Amino acid sequence: MSKYLWLSKEWIDESAKLAEGQPERQGATARIQYRIEGGPDGNILYYWIIENGKLIESDLGELDGSEITLVQNYDDAVKIQKLQLDANAAFMQGRMKVEGNIGKLMSLLPVTNSPEYRQLQKDILEITQF
């Protein structure tokens, strides 16, 4: 299995391919901007567009019309990606900031707490090089 440098364009694209098998979940729709701060090469922006539980677009850069922005420092983002820190715990501890529509974020909990999503996280970790 090939590995891709975390947060590179290739990693984003391959992660999206892995997400294609996620089940549809009515109402789980959001435009999410991720901002990773303090990385080795500075801040990193990437985004996801999710419709009914399906990732329909993801890319590096800024998303016009994002509804939610998740802000994390680089070290915590690595821990989340390595499954060493739960994203929900990071939020509750104030280690992940949420800007925008928090209700929209809460509507995604059925997706992020599902066994299929947990498996996707493991699959993405398998292709990730830090």
Give a brief outline of the structure.
This protein has six helices and seven strands. By secondary structure, the chain is α/β, with parallel strands linked by helices. The protein has a single domain (4-124), classed as SCP2 sterol-binding domain (Nonspecific Lipid-transfer Protein, Chain A, 2-Layer Sandwich).
Question: How are the SSEs ordered, and which strands pair?
Answer:
Blueprint: E1 4-5, H1 9-19, E2 30-39, E3 42-51, E4 54-60, E5 68-73, H2 74-81, H3 87-92, E6 96-100, H4 102-106, H5 109-112, H6 115-126, E7 128-129
Parallel strand pairs: 1-7, 2-5
Antiparallel strand pairs: 2-3, 3-4, 5-6
Helix pairs in contact: 1-6
Describe the protein in words.
- The strands form 2 sheets. This protein has a 5-stranded mixed β-sheet with strand order 4-3-2-5-6. A two-stranded parallel sheet has the order 1-7.
- It contains 6 helices and 7 strands, in the order E-H-E-E-E-E-H-H-E-H-H-H-E.
- The two termini are 15 Å apart.
- The protein is an alpha/beta fold.
- It is globular, with a radius of gyration of 14 Å.
- 18% of the residues are buried.
- Helix 1 runs antiparallel to helix 6.
- It has a single domain, classed as SCP2 sterol-binding domain (Nonspecific Lipid-transfer Protein, Chain A), CATH 3.30.1050.10.
- Helices cover 35% and strands 32% of the residues.
- It comes from Acidithrix ferrooxidans.
- This is SCP-2 sterol transfer family protein.
